[in-house]
Structures
1.
Amino acid sequence: MSKSGTPEDALTAAFAAARRTAPEPDADFLARVLADAEGVQEGFAKAKVAEAAAEARFGTTSRGGWRGVFQALGGWPAVSGLGAAAVTGLWIGVAPPERLDATAQQVWGEDITLALQPDIGTDLFPDEEG
Amino acid sequence: MPLDAMNDVPDQALLVLFANGERDAARALTLRLSPRVLAHAYRLLGNRAEAEDVAQEALLRLWRVAPEWRQGEAKVTTWLYRVVANLCTDRLRRGWRQRPLEAAGEPADAQASVADDMQDRARTDALQAALQALPDRQRQAVVLRHIEELGNPEIAEIMEISVEAVESLTARGKRALSDMLRGRKDELGYVE
């Protein structure tokens, strides 16, 4: 039996002993793990068969149509972000906060009003009236 | 692909084959990963039966996540160490504690002499009992560093903490283990 001189040496020896005596998986355990693995693989195969059947029946993949658009955008995280941005934009348009007006004035240097339908009747064809 | 030919295939590639329904990939991954997962669970729990349950559950989660595995991100073993640690922590938080010094099973090295084997067993038992007395995170860090022999950056990734925090945990853990084992110097085979 080997003897070590310091607690540090003893601890190092104990770690090495722990590596040498690592518990080995026995046949029963390996069989259980492998059975799980094969069961999951069968599930994948069944899912693929079901997807192929749905494709054959409806002529589209399960990722087509709106679901495809939804997936292409990035799923729920992306769509919820887009939704939040849209609602915020609508709110600012309908009821702009006072500070927004003040900020716009500071940026542009004057009070600006934007009309959705400019008055184009007189300015575009001035000569025709005279 | 024959089972022997899979020895050199990386874990992530085997996982892709597994997700594609390759039976040999399931066997290769089971044989490759089970020993490490079981040993790690045992080191954290100190109980063979509980460790087997945790290892089986961790591997089942790996099988299920295989089709969505993102290549080039975390190593398969890094992911497994994290899952095993989380499952062990859950069990310990639910109030389960190991019975002290439960046998881990047959030693891996059958060639060792009987005397060396007894010494190893005594040292391992004393160490395991001391490990169980450490706080969960210290135990996890010490096991990963000094028994699994992983580098600090990988341990930091597994535990989702900084490398400095890993160094602090392992240093405190080793100090505590030394203190605890000083009282069992005969079992550990050292003289002062």
2.
Amino acid sequence: MRDLAERALDAAVTAGADYADCRVVDRRVQHLVVKNGKVVTVEVGEDEGLGVRVIAGGAWGFAGGCRLDAASVEETARHAVRIARASARLNPRPVHLAPLAPVSGAYRTPVEQDPFEVSLDAKLDLLMRTDEAMARVAQVTVRESNSFGRHQLCAGWEVIEGFDMPGNAERIATEAAALLTADRCPAGTMTVILDGTQAALQVHESCGHPTELDRVLGTEAAYAGMSFLTPELLGTFRYGSEQVTLTADSTRATGLGTFGWDDEGVPARRTMLVDKGIFSGYMTSRETAAVLGQESNGTMRADGWARLPLIRMTNVNLEPGSSSLDEMIATTKHGVYLETNRSWSIDDRRLNFQFGTQNAWEIVDGMRTRLVRNALYSGTTPEFWRSCDAVASDAEWRMWGVVNCGKGQPSQLMHVGHGAAPCRFQNVRVEPAQ
Amino acid sequence: MTVLPADDVVALSEGALMQARMGDAEAVVTSVTEELTRFAANAIHQNVAERSLRLRARVLADNRVGTAASTGEAGADLAARVMAAAESAREVATQTDVSPIPEPDEGADDPAAYSAATAAATPELRADHVAAIARRASGRGLVAYGYLSTAQRQTAVANTKGVRRSATSTQAGAVVVVRGDAGSGYASRHDADIDRIDIEEMADEAVDTCLRNQGADAIEPGTYEVVLAPYAVTDLLEHLGWVGFSALAVQEHRSFMRIGEKAMSESVTIRDDCRDPDLFPYPFDAEGVSTQPLDLIARGVCHAVVYDTPTALKDGVRSTGHSLPQPNTWGPYASHLAMLPGESSVPELIAGITRGLYITRFWYVRDVHPLHAIITGMTRDGTFLIENGRLSRPVRDLRFTQSIVDALGDVRGISRERRLELGESETGVLSPWLHLGHFAFSS
């Protein structure tokens, strides 16, 4: 791989690049699906290729190719340079990168049990036992369990076993059946408590995306949009209450955004985004950090060899507080406890949001009472986070994985992490979907 | 420049089949060359190219199935590796829900949408087009953001039952958001042939919308009569495709479609037609089955849903040729959606409204309640108040939460003109302007 990369870089420089970087990616995946008691999918995949990014004539060019012979690699590099020269036809401001010291090293995700060493029989047995547990609930008509879901972690087979899918399956099926006859969610302005998974998505949409500096500078304006968190607000804007501290941390164990270096070679690190409610930082790249006179904090990632690295969330975490779910419920007069996302939408500046969850439990006088269905809650980002009056402690804090974060054109899907714990908000608009 | 000549793509798929030592097998080979020039603030800031070769193989035997996919080196080694992996996967999969590999059908190999000009497009051509867009914006003191893309795709499907299908297609697209100090405008164009995209006309549309959309005021949320531009209508049709028009959604009782029942206004006919020259014509699906044109909603009545081989087997019918790569749990998908045009001009649609809203496009549209086809999302890049039959002033973006089926049950007018737009799943959708009697905005 290193020889191929060196060959690509040499070819790019020979063709006139002032700067070039190269990534060689070899990815293996295994995907298993059991549905309604039958194995539907047993799929193995491999994905190899090389991507070359260059600056020539002061402008960017990128090319990716799947052929890894010497001649093809050199041709890919030369094509990247040609593209950069075309970019230079409409690039009045030459690219300037923040400085970065050269580094050399290797990074490997800590793994107790290599998932590719576990037999297919053992994996399918896990899915079949999960399916059988769901099948015990009579009203369930469609059952699916798979090796790809909304929650994933960077670790070994030990985390899959730790999820205890067979042990949770019957409870989940029972809740699904109960929703069929549950009352509609009450409407009104009330207290909302989010479980860790919904808190993770709330962080993703309303904190993670608006603190991506490329969005702020307009490079995503035609697609994902821009951000309400503009640079003049840094250090002074009250984003949330004092309970709210948010970080981008690519060093946190098991996160999908945990790595040794980002795709520009910037070392993993922890960056404060919101410090006790005050907006305090962005996720940056070498190019965008230079605009603010900073060094990159290492968040550039591509979703494969065929794509250009972009600023992506690493692990954007809501840091733990001092409360607990039980305490939050016990001190709530009237509200809902919301579990597990089913619908999400937010505007292009990341202010106006609406989320829906699978489960909603009505809270009355400090007690979790009935299950209600089709709950939606909505609000405006800073007002919502300013109303946060409790975050659960380390004891209930978990790292969650989001596997479908879309950004960029051509589209890229990124795996990102979010550490979160249950948290409580006041005066939130709640209503049923139907 | 392509990764492999078209004949080699076909040969690779057939070569893969030779590696299958038992049972039935299917090989799908796709060669993709895609280039995209992206711009922001009147400058090119990202400019990329991808050349890839993907092989996907499925092996079935003894009521077992295995699949393997690979992107990488071309040639027999790739085919051998993929088929070996598929067979090893097959060995372990007991109690499998195996859907048979389809037989060849009588469908003709109609040509896919293809343009030599698009296939030959260069980075320099794209840069010049982007410069033209930037000039139109900067000439009015505005800044442009967006992309211009060109792609060529060669696909071959071969199976041991005798299916041999191949097609070469192209696609070109341009999207622009023009921003001023206090508002923005949007336009996009998509076509198989880049030379048929009028870049300056598209830029002018976005500039015009942007200039009219400066300094928007807030308006009370509520239920309004609306005129939706085709960009917004595309979101409605695409979401109907996801939640309603699939046979799997019907079989699992999560679709609004009840065949033979009236669901929408009589003026609404929604087709899926892979032969429509105004869409991106393409003759077969991911299983190599010929895609059939279908009226999904005919004059407001639920008429048909799309099938792949597994769902067709369950209902005892023939596949309509709408399969995604098999095996999957998503079900079939209507990837050539079009709403038939009406008889009105766009000004006539607007003239029919005393007080309402004109919506240029939606953003971040998501399903809220699939069974009732309820979606939510935001308006973006040009929302205008209609007063006394004309656009009176821009208004701030609004969130809507609305049943698509309910909205299409109150259609007051449909435009003659339609636009081809890419949906979020990047398939073409042919949409008119729509005048709807009510649409609910919540914030």
